[in-house]
TrEMBL record:
The keyword Disulfide bond does not apply. It is found in: Cell membrane. SUPFAM superfamilies: P-loop containing nucleoside triphosphate hydrolases (SSF52540). CDD domains: ABC_cobalt_CbiO_domain1. Keywords: ATP-binding, Cell membrane, Membrane, Nucleotide-binding, Translocase, Transport. This is ABC transporter ATP-binding protein. It comes from Methanolobus halotolerans. GO terms for molecular function: ATP binding; ATP hydrolysis activity; ATPase-coupled transmembrane transporter activity. It is a peripheral membrane protein. The lineage of its organism: Archaea, Methanobacteriati, Methanobacteriota, Stenosarchaea group, Methanomicrobia.
Amino acid sequence: MVILETKDLSFSYPDGTVALDNINIRIEEGKKIAFVGRNGSGKSTLFLSMNGTHRPGKGEILFHGKPLKYDSRSLREVRKNVGIVFQNSDDQIFAPTIYQDVAFGPTNLDYPKEKVKQIVHKTLEYVGLMHLKDKPPHHLSGGQKKRVAIAGIVAMDPEIIILDEPLANLDPVGADEVMDLLNEQSYFGKTIIISTHDVNLAYSWADYVFLMSEHKIISEGTPEEIFVQPDKLKAAHLRRPATLEIYEEIKMRGLAKTNCCPRDIPDLVHSLRSQHLLWVDVPPEVKEGDYINLGIFYGEYAQNSAYEAANCKVLHIHDDGLAIAEMDRKAFRAGSIGIYDTAKYSREDLLSIIERDGVECVGAMGKKSKLIAEKDDIYLDVTAGVIDRSILNALAGQRCLILTHDGMVHHAMDRIRAYMEKSGINIPVSVINPNPEEQSKQDVTKSMMT
Ligand SMILES: Nc1ncnc2c1ncn2[C@@H]1O[C@H](COP(=O)(O)OP(=O)(O)OP(=O)(O)O)[C@@H](O)[C@H]1O
């Protein structure tokens, strides 16, 4: 369903500078959208038009199919539902304390004081800044300010969250924290729109991309469609994403499977053509193209450990039932990924799981979980790109544990399952401490994995 739409939208600043020239876009509800384009192409102006700050010179903007109106009541309504996080947090944060800053939006919505307090506490908890609530915002780091700015918007519970260059000036860990927050909001059904110059981010993160140049949309589509158009990328002053560059090089050397478009490192790893063919006996129900589990390899057949699990793709089946199969990986040890919901955290419980399951790699996703680990001295091997890193480590045979909470538990599960479906590789994955009502879902998952 389309949530936001522009029709023939044009806008010029009072000094005559043309900033938007006949923009026609449709944004689907619940999607992750990236606007990518060179400096001055019009991204910020478009965003400010989307929440009614700029009134178009020509054309119109539709929210849920209804044209935006510019009287103060209608603007208040649209700004409650279309929240913008500015590129520079100092343009957004102005109250004397962090608490007051986040409370500004809900207070303006005329919520009672107690409800405002509840919302602010929940939101500050969520962005991991509760311990700083009485501090003045100008004492914070860039990454913390960005999280306050996001909290101020999230506190209004808008349907669309727009972020202008959300990762500008953030260090890699700060950037990952912001992306964690956005992914979680997306998982809760929000439509997330960002602008960025970072082609790697747009390519790996977005569901849909708009390329902008010279105040116009010059191309739109899925990341796989957009980032394989060299002329369009050139016009928008952009490069190809690194994963695609590497993939092209691998492909030119005959080392890649054809027709795949890797979007992240696990995809890239999976795109490598196997060098190993083998003969296997296959049961009658197996068809050409099926992936089959070869079970466990021992001793000299295993590469990295005493025993390893191996998968293969059946390329051709002879009449006598013998088949030629391509091993997707020479062999990989049976690693696994456990997900621990820190909403039900206890230090003893977690440490005993790590001990009991022989966990070799612990990662934390989301500020709340990272703070818990830090406070209780739980050593984290991974704090950035946690899901992809855990997939890669599990493929290399490690037993991994991801600490996370609430919606992120499902987000991690979904991402890992999507990888398994795409690659045909089974990684045992489970929520280690599910809610009782989720236990039954979990049992179904476990039976699928075995
Ligand atoms: N207040 C203003 N008055 C006049 N011109 C402006 C104003 N703000 C932006 N512009 C001009 O409008 C055009 C679009 O600017 P905009 O900030 O929307 O681009 P952008 O794509 O967000 O750029 P960046 O990537 O650098 O943030 C540019 O030519 C810019 O110089």
